Q: What sequence folds into this?
C-alpha cells in the first residue's frame, strides 16, 4: 500500500518494495538496525523525570508532568522524588473497576489530567503496568512508567526528599504547591474489554491468558482462541522490560500472535494482564484490551 501511494499517486520516480517482513529484517545475518520500541516515550528514566518534573521547570511555571508514587506510604515517607504524589498501589488495586473513585482521588491529590502522568514505583513491573493501564482507561492525557526505582534514582544523582507534596490553591504565579484539580472520568473503551462479546471486525480475536497458570474463560466467541503467555516472560531476570527484538520474537515468532488481531489480556491478577498489555503496546500492537 505505501508503495502504491508513493509511486502511483505521489508519483515518486524511484520507489522499491522490500519483500521481507520485519522478522526477516531482524534475523538478517548482517544485524540490520532496528527501532527499539513503537512507543519509547512510555518509559521515562531518572534524568528525564528530574528535568521535566523537577524544581527548575516548576519554578519557571512550565511543568506538564504529574509524578505518581505507587510505593507503600511508609516507603514514600522514608524518601521520594520531589513533587511526587503518593497514591499507594493498594488503592489502585482496590478501585481497579471504579474509575470515578480513582478520578476523585487523583484530583484531590493534585494530579492534572492534561499532563503526562509518570508512574513511579519499582521500575517496570506488573504493578506499574496496572496503574498505567488504569490511568489510560479513565482518560489521562498521556501515561508513562519510570524505568528506575528509588535506589537507582538516588545513584543517578536524583535528589530525594521526605517532605510530602503540598496540595492547595496557588497563592502566587510560581507557587510550588499542587492545586486540587477537577479530574473527570473519560473512559477509553479501546483498552478495556467489557464482557466476552462477539468480534466486531474481520481480524482474529485472541484471548491471552497472562497469569502463571492458565485459566480458560468459559464463554469465548466461537471463532476466538486462547494463548497462555505468562506476563513474567516479558521481563528480564534483572528486572525491566525485555528489548524490542526479544518481545517481537516472543509474541510474533515463538507464539505467532498476529499484529492486527484483537488481543484481550486477562488473568486472575489484573496486573498480569496489564503487563502483557503494556508490552504489546510498546512494540506497536494496535488493538490490545484488558479484561477484568
A:
Amino acid at each position: 500500500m505505501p508503495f502504491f501511494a508513493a509511486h502511483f499517486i505521489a508519483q515518486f520516480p524511484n520507489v522499491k518494495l522490500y519483500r521481507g517482513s520485519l522478522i526477516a529484517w531482524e534475523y538478517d545475518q548482517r544485524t540490520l538496525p532496528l527501532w527499539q520500541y513503537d512507543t519509547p516515550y512510555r518509559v521515562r528514566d531518572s534524568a528525564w523525570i528530574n528535568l521535566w518534573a523537577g524544581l527548575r521547570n516548576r519554578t519557571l511555571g512550565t511543568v506538564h508532568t504529574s509524578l505518581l508514587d505507587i510505593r507503600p506510604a511508609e516507603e514514600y515517607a522514608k524518601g521520594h522524588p520531589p513533587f511526587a504524589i503518593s497514591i499507594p498501589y493498594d488503592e489502585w488495586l482496590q478501585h481497579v473497576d471504579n474509575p470515578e473513585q480513582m478520578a476523585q482521588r487523583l484530583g484531590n491529590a493534585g494530579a492534572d489530567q492534561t499532563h503526562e502522568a509518570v508512574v513511579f514505583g519499582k521500575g517496570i513491573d506488573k504493578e506499574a503496568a496496572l496503574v498505567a493501564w488504569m490511568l489510560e482507561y479513565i482518560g489521562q492525557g498521556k501515561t508513562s512508567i519510570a524505568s528506575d526505582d528509588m535506589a537507582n534514582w538516588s545513584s543517578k544523582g536524583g535528589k530525594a526528599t521526605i517532605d510530602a507534596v503540598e496540595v492547595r490553591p496557588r497563592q502566587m504565579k510560581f507557587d510550588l504547591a499542587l492545586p486540587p484539580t477537577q479530574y473527570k472520568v473519560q473512559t477509553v473503551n479501546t483498552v478495556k474489554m467489557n464482557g466476552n462479546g462477539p468480534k466486531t471486525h474481520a481480524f482474529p480475536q485472541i484471548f491471552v491468558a497472562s497469569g502463571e497458570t492458565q485459566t480458560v474463560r468459559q464463554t469465548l466467541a466461537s471463532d476466538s482462541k486462547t494463548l497462555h503467555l505468562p506476563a513474567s516472560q516479558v521481563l528480564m531476570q534483572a528486572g525491566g522490560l525485555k528489548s524490542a527484538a526479544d518481545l517481537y520474537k516472543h509474541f510474533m515468532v515463538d507464539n505467532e500472535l498476529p499484529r492486527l488481531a484483537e488481543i484481550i489480556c486477562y488473568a486472575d491478577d489484573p496486573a498480569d494482564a496489564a503487563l502483557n498489555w503494556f508490552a504489546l503496546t510498546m512494540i506497536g500492537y494496535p488493538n490490545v484490551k484488558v479484561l477484568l
Notes: The chain has eleven helices and ten strands. The two ends are 37 Å apart (CA to CA).
